[in-house]
Amino acid sequence: MQTATPARKVTRPRADALRNRERIVAAAREMFVEDGPDVPFDEIARRAGVGNATVYRNFPDRDALVREVVCSVMDRTAEAAERALAETGDAFAALERFVHTAADERISALCPMVCGTFDKNHPDLEAARERVERLVEEVMRRAREAGRLRPDVGVGDLLVVVAQLSRPPAGTDCLRGDRFVHRHLQLFLDGLRAPARSVLCGTAVTVEELRRP
Q1: Which residues bind DNA (predicted)?
Q2: Strands, DSSP E only, in the chain?
């Protein structure tokens, strides 16, 4: 008589292990924004409230940690837009939520690290970036079809301006810049509304243009 083969037990990360990983990523994000990507792991561990071994167990090298921080930031900005679209059905409101969340996540301070610290073509990073780009493209398309978004702007236009307006001016830090970043981003968003009040020079900027060397 044949006996049933026992099902393979799938090992899942413990809840406390997941919480530790999230704390490490949150602490690293804060410190990368404040001091750049070369912050010692010891200091990140101290801020996260975990031991050094826990940091290295989750992230064997700096590239892995920086990549996880950038991917998590892009995921959260995308999720903010998705929630806004699901809750209101208003594509322009979803676009506004994406822009303001991207500023809160310090995306302008973190994204330059993609070029300077690790492989920008890593599959995880590519997947997170493509998710954001697809979502923003879809949200902009819906807003345009609803007559809410001017027709002469592209995804590249949006990403460039968000990066520029959410970056603190030279000589100031991120925290002091907070008080005017969202004000200026809202001015930009109001300029995206249809009907357009001016004619833009040139053509809409695409994501492909931004990626060109």
Answers
A1: 40-59
A2: none
CATH 1.10.760.10 fits 14-60, yes or no: no
Q: What tokens appear for 114 in the block? A: 């993609």
Question: Mind giving me the DSSP string for 120-181?
Answer: TT-HHHHHHHHHHHHHHHHHHHHHHHTT-B-TT--HHHHHHHHHHHTSPPTT--HHHHHHHH
- Element spanning 30, H or E: helix 15-35
Interval 41-95: pLDDT, tens:
999 999 999 999 999 999 999 889 988 998 898 888 888 888 888 888 899 998 9
Domain ranges of the chain: 14-60, 66-211
Tens of pLDDT, residue by residue over 119-165, are 677 888 888 888 888 889 999 999 999 999 999 999 999 988 888 88
- Domain 66-211 classification at class level: mainly alpha
C-alpha to C-alpha distance for 52 and 131, rounded to whole angstroms: 32
On the 0-12 / 13-18 / 19+ scale of CB atoms within 10 A, 24 is buried
